[in-house]
Design the sequence.
């Protein structure tokens, strides 16, 4: 008996994006290539790369372009051992921030389970160098789970980024199918809880990708779990299959359904919720965070995270 051949669902019109281009896009690409820096924008084949780069926003990916884990959704290269750390990377990224004239930067990384400290010290050095050279820069980090080693999570948090993000990625039931076996639903929640409890002035953030077979009630449960550990910022986006080697798309979720989850996220108490087919964890990150800062500044005259230039009025 011949098994039926998998036929992927047709990609709907709302997922069409423009071909990357524009002067800022070209300038950023040249800057990154000249310094041999990596961005998750390129490595993860983000559909918003043209819009974000042309708008002067980029997400730096530190510690190389090779991940030591093999999540079934991710386009980043994988191997048991990552590439040697570039000790000049903190300086290179800081210089690139200046050239790109960024006021908000996202720093993420591959998983480096092959390193004794998970790469946490290097991650922190990138943050510290960028803060030293650009005092008014707002920094968001998107980190691995560091296998639940709290000293490694603390190393990054103590570098005091403004936003500490770690992605839950999917609902509890699908986590073993979607993520690497070393990742775990409860472990990711524990990372976010640890940061919020130990470093309450740092905003925490997480993201879910939809269209991998989740049910509505499972998404709502995940949102409630994230709020229970104090997460402030949430993003929800559509999973897009990078290659035929990766897990298939089960469903292309409609914009109306994303709006439904956005409303529930706001009802649950997230400060900001970005939800839509093309939304990614770092998509327009600065825009959402600055709005939050402006609202905060109206309630507090002296907030350690609010730059005076961002205050309303």
Sequence:
């Amino acid at each position: 008996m011949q098994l039926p051949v998998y036929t992927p669902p047709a990609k709907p019109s709302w997922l069409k994006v423009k071909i990357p281009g524009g002067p800022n896009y070209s300038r950023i690409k040249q800057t990154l290539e000249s310094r041999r820096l990596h961005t998750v924008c390129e490595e993860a084949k983000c559909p918003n790369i043209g819009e974000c780069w042309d708008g002067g926003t980029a997400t730096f990916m530190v510690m190389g372009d090779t991940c030591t884990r093999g999540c079934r959704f991710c386009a980043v290269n994988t191997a048991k051992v990552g590439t040697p750390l570039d000790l000049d990377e903190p300086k290179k990224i800081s210089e690139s921030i200046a050239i790109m004239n960024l006021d908000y930067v996202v720093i993420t990384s591959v998983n480096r389970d092959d390193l004794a400290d998970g790469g946490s010290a290097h991650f922190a050095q990138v943050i510290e160098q960028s803060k030293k050279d650009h005092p008014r820069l707002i920094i968001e980090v998107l980190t691995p789970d560091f296998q639940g080693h709290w000293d490694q999570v603390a190393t990054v948090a103590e570098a005091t980024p403004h936003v500490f993000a770690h992605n839950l990625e999917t609902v509890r039931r699908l986590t073993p199918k979607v993520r690497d076996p070393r990742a775990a639903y409860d472990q990711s929640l524990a990372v976010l809880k640890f940061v919020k409890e130990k470093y309450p002035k740092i905003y925490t953030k997480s993201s879910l990708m939809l269209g991998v077979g989740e049910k509505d009630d499972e998404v709502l449960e995940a949102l409630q779990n994230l709020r229970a550990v104090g997460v402030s910022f949430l993003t929800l986006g559509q999973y897009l299959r990078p290659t035929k080697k990766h897990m298939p798309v089960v469903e292309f979720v409609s914009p109306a359904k994303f709006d439904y989850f956005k409303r529930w996220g706001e009802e649950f108490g997230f400060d900001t919720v970005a939800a839509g087919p093309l939304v990614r964890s770092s998509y327009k990150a600065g825009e959402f965070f600055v709005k939050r800062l402006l609202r905060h500044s109206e309630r507090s005259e002296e907030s350690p995270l609010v730059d005076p230039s961002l205050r309303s009025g």
Q: What stands out?
A: The chain is about 35% helix and 15% strand. Residues 285-299 form the longest helix (15 residues). Strands lie at 38-39, 59-62, 66-67, 77-78, 104-109, 138-142, 163-165, 203-210, 233-238, 272-275.
